Amino acid sequence: MKRLFAFMAIVMFGAVAVTPILAQDEIVVDFAHIFGGEGDVRRDVLQAIADDFEAQNPGIKINLVSPGNDYTEVFNRVLLDAQQGNGPNVVQVEEGLTQLAADSTLFIPIGDFATPEQMTQYEGILPVVRNYYKIGETLWSLPWNSSNPVVYYNKTITDLLQIKLPDSPLTFQQVLDICKQVKAVEAVIKAANPAFQACINFPMTSWLPEQWMSMQNALVANNDNGRSARATEMNFTSPEMVKIIQFYKDLSDNGYFTYTGTPNDYNGEGGLFGTGATIFHINSTAGITLFVNGFAGAGVELGIAPLFVPDEDATNGVTVGGASVWVLAGQSEAETKAAVDWAFFLTNMENDIRWHQGSGYFPNRQDSIDYLTTGGAFVDADGKPTTADAAGAKEAAWFDTYPFFAVAINQLQNSAGTAANQGAVIGSNAEVRMILVKGLQSVVDSGISPEEALAAAKTQADQVLADYNAVVEP
Amino acid sequence: MDVENESLLNRFIARLLTGCLGLGALLFMLWFFITQWGGITDFLAWFAIGVEDFPNALSRVATHYSALPPNQLLPAFLIGIVFGSVSTARIARPKNPLWLLVGGLLGALGSQLLVLPTQHCTFAPTIDSTQALIGIGITLVGSVVFLIPLWTYLRVSEKQYESTSGYFRNRWLPYVLIVPMVLNLGVFLYYPSVQTVTLSLFNKRYPLPQEKFVCLDNYSRLANDVVYQNSFVTSFVLTIIVVILSIGIALSIAVIASQKIKFASVYRTFLIFPFALSPVVAGAIFLAMFREGQTGLINALIYSLTGTTLSWLRDPHLARVAIVMASVWNILGFNVLFYIAGLQNVPQDLLEAAQIDGANRFQRFFRITFPLLAPFSFFLLVTNVTYSFYGIYGAIDTLTAGGPPLGAAGSLGGATNVLIYKLYEDAFNSGSPAGLAAAQAVILFIIVAGITLLQFRTLESRITYSD
Questions:
Q1: Contact B409 A439 (CB under 8 A)
Q2: pLDDT of res. A16
């Protein structure tokens, strides 16, 4: 028995000693992202891009890792790992976590490490997209998967009701008018579809009010949305915000609006709309393919329209949603270079187009959009989308073949690029956003006036800002 | 084949099997160590840092004490000395002034146990009254921790310690045997607990590395926070309702399920089934039932009967009802399981005797069955209270996320925002106040420990456990 233990010990330590020798002299870039779910096609697109990068850069290996399937989970894991020196090299960070990431001291500003060629590539990104990830003059990260809210509607029903939507975005007043029309024939709709509940539903989220603030060229937070200096106050009680919340109240008081009862329930709200509970719906462009396929399968016509505007004068445009890629600090020079190169490779024109076509997130670059306007898709003799190598396939414009993508991209291209379009950077964004959501809920569900709800939300949010700033400021 | 050969063969097979088993275990350990080596080295490195840093930590403590002004240092010692000597004097028999001295000394030492991590900040002249009071409280708690061994010694020596249980021949063997458990508890329970208490003294934003020492500010904030106070009340109310319902319903079901009927074991299996689901899954099932409009099962039913639907998740009262139903349903299987086991232990002869004496069904249940189930009821009471404080997080997270908000913009909290949910919300969101959450964890632990202790002291003494 003793001999056996000795043997075991020798084998064990032998194996441990040999392990590092086996590791080769190659640079490994760990890229942490959220698309690692079982059967997620976006992971396959990402893997294909990584394979191409490896082929072009011998000696560098891209290791795709998914410590979680949502942004918060991945972000928290990566930051904790990084504090113990075990972090990945590059990570996908949601837009709302920008300030927190910048404050963490665990990332490098990618702009300071980019080559002049890479900075030229960066300039090709749409200004409204690229400006989000700049705080002051520091470029922290590269925009990657970008999305926007758009309006989805049940075109079969609106056609039946003879509701004609204009090409320009609907104003709040127009929405209320249309919903009034729908309400008048509610009994008829219910008889045909017992699942019908209300004219419109959308997620109870602070993302939409933020968009509507941007459209009115209004700042969500002071100090230029927290860009020129740390935000110390939320502009929740501004007339622009009151106007937005009044819209929620008007919708709900008149019985035009419903929601699942759960905040930030993007999937649940989409489900409500999908089952015919509502006729109008607002959701992220990230789900566009899902809606298009689902409605096509059900034989119902889906309409996609730009996001509502508060009024005709609110022409400032939207802010970008989604995520960007950040490079972690504390790596060797070679690793940092490889990580920065990977981030730029992932977001270059070719991969921007590939990612858009494979994932449904929209292209970030002007040259990608130009290319997709003239080419990028293949159709058969009847003009139906087909694969490039199918017999008789000919090249066609991508946006002509898939026109619903154009809605989101137009809306983004038409954004003015002011500080309001940049969106607010708040360290404790999750908390502040949740406070606004609770404000919305108390208006919709408890009949509290918009002014009172917003004043209470502002008091709470400003306290959160003060608490947060006290920790990170020296 | 004769008997001798057969036994030889058996012995050979037995040794072969033992050998295979040993080899298998060996290979498993090898595999385990090789694959886990990275984690083990991290752990060892972390341990080494701790050992290396120990002298530095000592010198930091020494610097802290020497730099502290006497008016901040002396009060804690004084409290410890007075409390230690007075309390020991009441216990010690015969009254020996020596015990007074020892008590005072231990009290003084103990007073520093919890006050040192707070850097004596609660005795600073500028501190607010809430924090100063809590500071005195933790000084006393620290003293008690050091005094308990002394009190135990004094009481035991009084009673003349008589052991009736087994003993070890080797004096050191028992200590060796508990080493793995102590290590395990130390790494996974005591160390994280100490870390949590330490964290509660800091203003920190998860998961940022920055932190600032804020004394007991997190605690006094919670004490004055109306959202936290409401969360406190909600927790207690929900706990009482969930515990009463889950135990009451489980007992009725168990009584019915224990009847001698065909396929009883099949029914019992189904009854226990809900416990096999995690609270999150239970929450998801209930979400499908309580959804708005007619997509929810319950609303579809109500609509077909009345032509209207209820806003289960948007109305504060209905949301609480939904949470109670989901929580009760989830723990029911567990309770039923124990009660069925308990009912099988109720002696039939007693019940028969009662029946012969003319006791009716109800009298038999309340006079015989129920009292005999007391040990099970007590066990379930303790576990269900713990479950209601900690375990209903999953159901709340999937169903209501702590809402619907009470007051304008949730300024009064949420209808289902119980302590454990508020704690999670404050602890694990990116950018959330981790120090405040740690303070909540400490308070929640004290509450649940306190309730459990109370249950043991008030109820357990009335229960007869059968031998």
A1: yes
A2: 53
Q: Does domain A19-146+322-359 have CATH number 3.40.50.300?
A: no
- Our count of domains for chain B comes to 2
CB atoms A12 and B34 under 8 Å: yes
- Of B67, B84, B112, which residue is a domain's last? B67
Angstrom distance (rounded) from CA A428 to CA B432: 6
Structural domain contains residue B237:
yes
pLDDT confidence bin for A22, thresholds 50/70/90? very low
Q: Which residues of A touch B29 (CB under 8 A)?
A: 8
Instruction: Report ipTM (2 d.p.).
Output: 0.82
CATH code of the domain covering residue B306 = 1.10.3720.10
Find the range with the poorest average confidence among A18-27, A399-408, B33-42. A18-27
Task: State whether B400 and A262 contact (CB < 8 Å).
Answer: yes
Written as one string, the DSSP assignment of B123-134 is GSTT--HHHHHH
Q: Does A104 touch chain B (CB under 8 A)?
A: yes
Higher pLDDT, B178 or A24: B178
Task: Report whether B282 contacts B330 (CB < 8 A).
Answer: yes
Burial class (CB in 10 A: 0-12, 13-18, 19+), B220: buried
Fold match between domain A19-146+322-359 and domain A149-317+419-472: yes
| 10-residue averages of pLDDT along chain B (467 residues) | 74 89 88 78 80 89 88 88 88 76 90 86 84 88 89 70 61 81 86 89 89 88 91 93 95 86 80 78 84 76 81 88 90 90 88 87 87 89 91 86 85 90 89 92 91 82 66
Residues of chain B with Cβ-Cβ distance to A427 below 8 Å are 205, 431
For residues B415 and B319, is the Cβ–Cβ distance under 8 A? yes
Contact B209 A106 (CB under 8 A): yes
Say whether B295 and A97 touch across the interface (CB within 8 A): no
What's the pTM? 0.84
Domain boundaries, chain A: 19-146+322-359, 149-317+419-472
Q: Which of A91, A190, A431, A462 to mutate to test the interface with B (most CBs of B within 10 A)?
A: A431
| Option in B208, B293, B414 nearest A100 (CB) | B208
> Are the beta carbons of B331 and B267 closer than 8 angstroms?
no
Range of the domain at B4: 1-67
Task: Give yes or no for a contact between A187 and A292, defined as CB atoms under 8 angstroms apart.
Answer: no
- Top-confidence range, A393-402, A423-432, B175-184: A423-432
Report the b/e string of B375-394 with b at 16+ CB within 10 A: bbbbebbbbbbebbbebbbb
User: Quick check: is B282 in a domain?
Assistant: yes
Please report, as a single letter, which amino acid is at residue A389.
D
Give the integer Cα–Cα distance in Å for A34 and A38: 11
The answer to whether residue B95 sits within a structural domain is: no
- Which chain A positions have a beta carbon within 8 Å of B313's beta carbon? 260-262
Dihedrals phi, psi of A255, to nearest 5 degrees: 75, 25
Strand partners, A179: none
Residue B357 belongs to some domain of the structure: yes
Distance from CA of B222 to the nearest CA of A (A): 14
Query: Going by DSSP bridges, is the β-strand pair A200-201/A280-284 parallel, antiparallel, or unpaired?
Result: parallel
Among all residues of chain A, which has the CA nearest to that of B410? Answer: A438
**Are B411 and A83 a contacting pair at CB < 8 A?**
no
Q: What percent of chain A has pLDDT over 90?
A: 55
How is residue B345 written in tokens?
């232990």
CA distance A231 to chain B (A): 15
Contact A441 B410 (CB under 8 A): yes
CATH number listed for the domain at residues A149-317+419-472? 3.40.190.10
Using a CB-CB distance cutoff of 8 angstroms, which residues of chain A are in contact with residue B431? Answer: 97, 100, 427-431, 468
For the stretch A440-469, pLDDT in tens is 999 999 889 999 999 999 999 999 999 999
CB contact under 8 A, B205 and A430: no
